[in-house]
Amino acid sequence: MERIFLVLTVVWLSAVGGRAQQNGELWPDVGGKHINAHGGNIIRYGETYYWYGENRPYRGFTTEVGVEVYSSKDLRAWTDEGVALAVSEEAGSDIERGCIMERPKVLYNAKTGKFVMLFHLELKGCGYEAARVAFAVSDTPTGPFRFVRSTRINANVWPFDYTAKQQKAAMKTDASKWEKWWTPQWMGETQKGMYLWRDMKGGQMSRDMTVYVDDDGRAYHITSSQENLTLLVSELTDDYLDFTGKYNQIAPGGQNEAPCIFKRNGVYWLICSGCTGWEPNEARMFRSESIWGPWTQLPSPFVGEGGYHGFAANKTFGAQGTYIFRKNEEAGTPYVFMADIWNPRHLSESLHLWLPIGFEADGRPVIRWQQQVPD
Fold first, then answer.
1. How far is CA 102 from CA 99, 120, 150, 180, 293, in A?
2. I need a labelling partner for 185 at 20 to 30 A (CA). Which of 54, 69, 132, 237 fits?
């Protein structure tokens, strides 16, 4: 028994110390527990990195704890800082224990000095019907964050680039008439703005989401909307706690979710997934020279073999993206694609996948499998 204990101790010390973290394996924090931060993001504040994510239960799918936060000086050894935003014990609260809190993303607002969290929220007992975005705020990166509100988005507002002709066509659609999806007729109505019009009064749906701060400090919320058929890009107010009302659509009817975005050499790149539940699928990629488009779809950036349990590039190596970050903002530092290898039987043990993004001669991103997590 003593020998077994010593062996396990050596394995644990190598995992949190000398041995580089491996993709497709449990990733222990400095306390030896697997990092339970899924669907989240990483920010750098001062000399410290903060990793936020869903604290998922071992069994079940609802949120029982909240959003967890970890800190690190080197992106390898992570300390659990506890719950950044806890569920509420108050009956009827938007974030009552048993709700669903997904895809938390935190931004630091240099103008207000506040840390702002946005996340996808589903109300307790309502499945995925609410489709809201929620806001929380904190004075410190580790919280506790104070819940502000949740809402549908862009109610009674058309995409800023929608013409009068497009608005008229959308208003002639009727989503209640279509029991069968994926027919050519249904797709035609969808691309006319059928679900956009259906949700105009109450606000547009917001599910899988990310956030992005541009070079000028302006922030954007990018989310899967219209029954996960269309991505919306919406401008946030200066304090990052609301929407300005300016937004537009990406790939109407394209069925994209799990958006991840970055900018390099003046070009915006958006990597997302299809909609296949917990099962991995082939990633999609879009390119634009403006956050507002037009966006051009290109082949998946994932290439080659390898991957978790043999999942190759056409299955995103077994994972689904959550965020793209850089170690710092200096020229030449790598972009890192963060993803989750979902384990729906035990969501708390879903694995993390970090892969460096390379670039072809024409600037196109390319992502190949590697066993070791990039330094």
1. 10, 5, 13, 29, 27
2. 132
